[in-house]
Amino acid sequence: MPKSFSPPRKVVFFFPSFASSEATAPLGVLAVATPLIRAGYQVVLVDSTITPDYRKRVLEEVRDAVCLGISLVTGPMIRETVEIARAVKEWNPEFPIILGGWHPSLLPDQTLQAACVDYIVRGQGEDALLELVKHLETRSAPDLIPGIGFKRGGKLILTPERPLKPLVEMPPKAYHIADFDAYERGCGKRWAMYTSSLACPFNCAYCTNAGVYGRKWNALPPEQFVEETVDLTRRYRLEMLWVVDDNFLVDLDRARGIAEGLVRERSQFKWSIQATTNMVARLSPEDLKLLRRAGLHQVCQGVDSGSPKILQLMNKTFQDFDQIYESAARCLAADIRPSFNIIFAFPGEGAKERRETISFMMDVCRRFPGAEFWTNIFTPYPGSPIMERAKEIGIEVPATLEGWADFFPRYTTLPWLHGEEHKRLQVTREYLRIAFDRIPIAADTRGPITRIAQKSISLPARWRLDHDVYKYPVEIWLNNQLKKRTASSKPAVDAKRLANTPAEAAC
Ligand code: B12
Ligand code: SF4
Fold it and tell me: Whose CA is nearest to atom 76 of ligand 1?
């Protein structure tokens, strides 16, 4: 007897671009895809970074799908989120659109208020999305699905929070739905992200993490880390993994176990981690050498300010300057690159504190060649402790989903940092970029002449930073000319159409 044919049940995901050539597969989407695939759904991912005609692709793919899921963080990703959601609604106002990820998790009501959004998922999405998709198919009541939001009769309804699950109970991510060839064409490197722990025990004033994952750190055991990462890198021929854990080093024995396991397995890939400086400073030189032998090549650390006063205001008294210097020295001795982050213009930072930070950065870079700094201007994100003081510090909080698209210091300024002062800080940051080398993820496509020319302007840039002089910024003009020689815009590659994903594949 011929088998009866039922069309594949399909869920389409859209990942809006964050306008970076350093893109790789979006881990949030890969995470929520697995339970769907295991339940027999076909999953299609359209990532705008590697799909120039993303709008057309989404509109084609949704025609025979159950719903569209979009993953986003606060900021410019909202622009394409709204563009795509509106385009789908124009085609079919009844077609369900679900938003998940950090922004909807932190601002569920406001996100749901947008006319083009039907459902939001708060926090971990693996179980919630599967239950929601099943509800869409059966038309059962969504009220009993924890951790979601929906609309009924013009009213917004948020169901009770879904308790957080430890990472070890989560299924593996569906890496096979990602087109690593296309990401490699855009970035020049073949790499992926990997999560091995959730949450962070600290509570920095600008950080949103506690709002989504709480502060109870939990992690995968070393054996699972080793087995999964070795398999992943071999299966997809990846040269590098960025372990996106907030604080990889909370459990030192686990870190040692991972390093020993990778050495035993003769793993070939490089990896980088994020950890607080106090945790890094706890590692002995032997620990760091072992981690290096296991492929660790970079430790990203949020130093955030060179001013003790600002660190106090940031609630970062868990780290001190000795630990930062110690961390730089020990990492470099083991041939691991220490990458430090700085946040300028945190509320309370004045000219004196900014100078302190710049002098501190210069001192670290001079004493520890090879250490690098990445700087940002403070952005008050929803869900962070500082945001509770928004009114007091003069921040106008956007009232709509669309309003958050521009809520980003590159496009807006802060009440205490605007006009000439804002310009001056941007010029200072540019000089910091010129003064000391930083190694991005994307392949370095600079020719030898560009490299030598950039090196030669680093000396006057350092002089300017030492003397706080930024008038007539000729070096910046020169650097921009040099950058034009190697400039790459949003990668013009199209992801190959992903084959229908068989339910039993890979996860
Ligand atoms: C990797 C990463 C990036 C990468 C993204 C790469 C990529 N391809 O995704 C890059 C470097 C580009 C990036 C950029 C930025 N990032 Co970022 N990033 C992260 C990081 C470290 C990991 C995210 C991740 O993949 N986690 C692993 C996955 C599995 O977890 P998840 O994302 O939470 O996903 C779960 C749920 O959220 C949910 N979910 C996610 N998507 C979806 C979709 C649907 C449909 C559903 C139902 C559920 C769902 O289910 C998932 C599984 O449980 C987080 C910190 C963190 N600890 O998560 C910060 C973080 C997300 N980033 C943040 C920020 C602020 C930024 C920037 C704005 C920083 C900046 N100032 O430049 C930029 C955005 C730039 C832009 N143009 O928009 C904030 C977000 C704050 C906020 N309110 O949104 C975080 C939380 C860091 C922090 N502590 O402040 N980031
Ligand atoms: S240490 Fe990092 S992840 Fe932890 S609370 Fe502070 S900023 Fe957030």
Answer: 18
Span 277-293, pLDDT tens digits: 999 999 999 999 999 99
* Direct distance between the N- and C-terminal alpha carbons of the chain, in angstroms, rounded to an integer: 31
- Return d(Cα 500, Cα 64) in angstroms, integer: 13
pLDDT tier for residue 407 given thresholds of 50, 70 and 90: confident
Residue closest via CA to ligand 2's atom 5 equals 203
CA distance 102 to 121: 10
Residue 99 CA to residue 104 CA, distance in Å, equals 6
Closest ligand 2 atom to residue 200 Cα is: 4
Ligand 2 center to residue 329 CA distance, Å?
22
Query: Tokens 């993490």, residue?
Result: 209
3-state secondary structure of 136: helix
Cα separations in angstroms, 178 against 24, 181, 497, 498: 9, 9, 10, 8
Helix 351-367 / helix 321-333 crossing angle, nearest 10 deg? 30
* pLDDT tens digits for range 186-211: 888 999 999 999 999 999 999 999 98
CA triplet 323, 327, 332: central angle to 5 degrees?
155
Q: Ligand 1 site: residues with CB under 6 angstroms? A: 18-20, 23-24, 26-29, 31-32, 69-71, 73-77, 98, 100-103, 105-106, 121, 124-126, 129, 193, 195, 207-209, 244, 246, 376, 379, 381-383
Regarding the beta carbon of 246 and ligand 2, being less than 6 Å apart is answered: yes
- The helix (run of H) or strand (run of E) holding residue 43 is strand 42-47
Strands 155-158 and 148-152: antiparallel
Average pLDDT of the chain, as a whole number: 91
> Average pLDDT, stretch 379-406?
92
Distance CA 24, CA 44 (A): 16
Judged on CB neighbours under 10 Å (0-12, 13-18, 19+), 422 is: middle
Pocket test for ligand 2, best of 246, 279, 300, 374 (most atoms within 8 A of CB): 246
**Is pLDDT above 70 for 35?**
yes
* 495 pLDDT higher than 50: no
Cα of 211 vs centre of ligand 1, distance in Å, is: 13
Higher-pLDDT residue of 116, 442: 116
Rounded to the nearest angstrom, the distance between the alpha carbon of 469 and the centre of ligand 1 is: 37
The candidate with the shortest Cα–Cα distance to 340, out of 379, 312, 313, 367, is 367
DSSP structure class, residue 417: B
Q: Which ligand is nearest to the CA of 302?
A: 2
Q: In whole angstroms, what is the distance from residue 10 CA to residue 13 CA?
A: 10
Q: Is ligand 2 within 6 A of the CB of residue 195? A: no
In this structure, of 73-82, 182-191, 407-416, the range with the lowest mean pLDDT score is 407-416
